[in-house]
């Protein structure tokens, strides 16, 4: 079974290993003077190429909205997304690559932001791909999906983790009632300790025992990361991490990629 084959290549994290896991991460993978992770914070229109996949992307972001009061970090592109999808499709070491070898995957992305990088790149390799985020980000998200994946029908729904019932209703309207995705994807969503319980409740609501969640994190604050790992293993989830030797060169320092499933025991 594909899911078991993928999980066998990951390293499980038990509750008693949380502190050691985080300590080892910051001892072995942290980068001095690491930037915050913007792709480019100098202009609203940016173009770049994914080096492993050789895929060109053109993104419209909003620096003015990022700076406005009550705004969202999702108004600009973050490099975690581009590095993750480039690794998934372009690096044979990636344990999750087989998921996209045939376009049979039902994918939900949480916290897609305006860039739509994951949807634009992975959507064409999926049976169904739904991007979700807060309402104020969706207009620009649609623009970027149409720009970079014009031949792919990618769903866009409002799903705010703090207002989960309405978000789930929106998701089920876009798919079908009770739909559970094969894969949940989240890039750089773990940066605010306050949001972690809401994020995990969203996972708990959409995942079945056959669902795998991929969470890619840029290593900034160790306290926030430890809170995420600790709270995840305290819930009815099994948590795994991708070994450093299986990550791309871009992800092997300053980043960590997790796999999450419902508890198999």
What does this structure look like?
By secondary structure, the protein is α/β, with parallel strands linked by helices. The protein has a single domain (2-262), classed as Rossmann fold, CATH 3.40.50.150. It contains nine helices and ten strands. The protein has helices spanning 2-7, 18-28, 63-67, 79-90, 117-122, 138-148, 164-174, 196-206, 222-234, and strands spanning 11-13, 45-50, 55-60, 106-110, 128-133, 155-158, 183-187, 212-218, 237-241, 255-262. The strands form two sheets. An eight-stranded mixed beta sheet has the order 1-9-10-8-7-4-5-6, with helices on both faces. Strands 2-3 form a two-stranded antiparallel ribbon. Helix 8 links the parallel strand 7 and strand 8 (212-218). Helix 2 packs antiparallel against helix 9.
CATH class: Alpha Beta
Shape: globular
Mean pLDDT: 93
Number of helices: 9
CATH topology: Rossmann fold
Q: Which strand order do you get reading across the main beta sheet?
A: 1-9-10-8-7-4-5-6
CATH architecture: 3-Layer(aba) Sandwich
Tally of discrete structural domains: 1
- Give the tally of β-strands: 10
Helical fraction: 25-40%
Please identify the structural class as seen in this structure: alpha/beta
**H-E order:** HEHEEHHEHEHEHEHEHEE
Give the structure's gist in a few sentences.
The chain is α/β, with parallel strands linked by helices and 265 residues long. The protein has helices at 2-7, 18-28, 63-67, 79-90, 117-122, 138-148, 164-174, 196-206, 222-234; strands at residues 11-13, 45-50, 55-60, 106-110, 128-133, 155-158, 183-187, 212-218, 237-241, 255-262.
